[in-house]
Hints:
The termini are far apart. The chain has one domain. It is an all-alpha fold. 84% of the residues lie in helices and 0% in strands. It contains 3 helices and no strands.
Amino acid sequence: MWSILGIITVGILISIYEVPSLLRRKLxxxxxxxxxxxxxxxxxxxxxxxxxxxxxxLDLLTNIYKPLNDFxxxxxx
Length: 77
């Protein structure tokens, strides 16, 4: 519980520090990208603190290329 509260607090502090300068310079696209990435990072950090298994992107690539790899190695034997 405390770790979740800490993660959200850090996310809010980062927003308080960064958002006003982006708004002053009228950088709307950068503000959207910053917000999306910050929310994504906060959610992933909360899931990690709750010890929820987060799939690794490399596992997806392995599942995609494993049949191709097996086919090539079998054909070279």
